[in-house]
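TASK: fixed-backbone design
INPUT:
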């Protein structure tokens, strides 16, 4: 299968999440870091939560999916993510959808490298996404993406923010052509 098609399919499938609702595809992103050319390269997400002592905490966290990680996600389920998500939505598979959102958060979480060219996801043999999953910040982010009145829009903005901008542009162009030809 053509690698560009894999990216395109992956980018277009999430508009059906969650609960089978169709969300308009748009290129808008949440606050993101930019390189000198203005290309969006990672998502900077501000999360507010209460610690175990009841204190309100607001922190910035960083998320990014690389192209190889996107290929791995697309191949992680039989038939590809597009078919799996459509089936999960049609069957109201809340556990499956929750696991998918968890996987996106954990896979995309990391720290900006001081060198300006690396996005660190493993430190001292520990996967930072799995470590992040054990925090109250993860819980608050997860609940924001899966619950509430605007959960589909929140997840759309999050996913749009973690996908490389050149792939977003490509998906938008392919979606435009598909709509034009239909």
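OUTPUT:
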């Amino acid at each position: 299968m053509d690698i560009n098609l894999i990216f395109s399919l992956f980018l277009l499938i999430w508009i059906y999440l969650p609960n089978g609702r169709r969300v308009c595809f748009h290129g808008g992103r949440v606050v993101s870091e930019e390189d000198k050319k203005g290309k969006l390269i990672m998502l900077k997400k501000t999360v507010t939560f209460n610690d175990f002592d009841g204190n309100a905490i607001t922190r910035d966290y960083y998320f990014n999916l690389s192209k190889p990680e996107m290929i791995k996600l697309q191949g992680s389920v039989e038939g590809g993510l597009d078919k799996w998500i459509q089936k999960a939505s049609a069957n109201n598979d809340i556990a499956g959808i929750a696991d998918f959102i968890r996987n996106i958060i954990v896979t995309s979480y990391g720290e900006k490298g001081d060198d300006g060219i690396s996005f660190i996801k493993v430190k001292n043999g520990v996967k930072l996404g799995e470590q992040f999953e054990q925090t109250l910040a993860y819980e608050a982010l997860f609940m924001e993406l899966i619950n509430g009145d605007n959960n589909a829009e929140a997840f759309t903005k999050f996913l749009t923010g973690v996908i490389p901008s050149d792939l977003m542009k490509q998906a938008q162009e392919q979606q435009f052509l598909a709509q034009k030809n239909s």
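COMMENT: The radius of gyration is 16 Å.
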